[in-house]
Amino acid sequence: MPIAAIHHLLTALLVAVWCLILTGSGRLVLSGLALPFRSRAEQVFLAFGVGLWIAAAGLFLLAAAQALRPLPLAGLLAALAASAIFGWLLELPCDPSPDPLIPPRERPAALLLAVLLVADGIFVLTPEIGKDALIYHLAVPKLTLAHGGFYAIAGNVFSGYPLLGEMHYLAALAAGSETLAKAMHFVLLGGTLLGIGLLSRLIRGNAFPVPAMLIFASIPVVFQVSHSSYNDLFVACFTLAALYSFLRWREGRLRGWLALAALFCGAAAACKYTALLLAPLGVLGILWCHAGSRESRAALGDLLLYGLAFLVAAGPFYLKSWVLR
Questions:
Q1: I need a surface site. Which of 56, 106, 224, 267 has the fewest CB within 10 A?
Q2: Mean pLDDT of 244-269
Q3: Would you call 68 helix, strand, or coil by DSSP?
Q4: Where are the beta strands (DSSP E) in the chain?
């Protein structure tokens, strides 16, 4: 078997293990929130998003402690793998008979989507040529890994950015594979598409989830960046998860959903400065849901919960940016 084929198979295996570890770790956290889920797909989408933040936070702590060395990295991997195993062994409450994510009438659209994703996925196997990836998304974690932790990289202002997505690329580079970093971002396209389908089901009652996914995946800029080591789909996936969790909170006012919405808002902001807009939007959404209510303590409690969870998710990444300014 050619060496290139072996490399591609190893990349596929590693990205699959990465997905399983992230989703399993996220399931462990979701089990503590005791939330009712409508489908397995909903569980996977939200658990994967939570796991993305957990793994990035762990790598962030190692980088902040100047401990990006083989032994600490192996210890973090072992801890994440153990939490993932426990997470997958847990049974989360779920609707026993949810509507199918792909209705029969939308199977032709699903076939077109599959063809598009296969065509897009082929480009994951090609060398990285994206300008932002080469000077920012891969360059900064590569230098950070070589240095053993965070530092102000002379001549590269991007080292002062929040870098949540780049923490995952740091793990890929530690494994010696830029292709793995590209594959990670491509997987985020799948997570974003799943979120679009779930949001369509939530808002429109299972009306046209697959066409909505197909429209998004066929946007030229989405096709272009999804097979490169960018962080745009990290932001998109976290933003969708935040909106979805907020709408689920609005239905029954279970604060676990609000905590998830705040966590995802903070995670998106920890990827890009432009995602900071989500913070005031979340506050406005909470105030809007409490409009006309005389229970001011409930509104204040929700705002405090939202603010605290947002700061926990995004605060360390912005503290790092302030220190390296």
A1: 224
A2: 96
A3: coil
A4: none
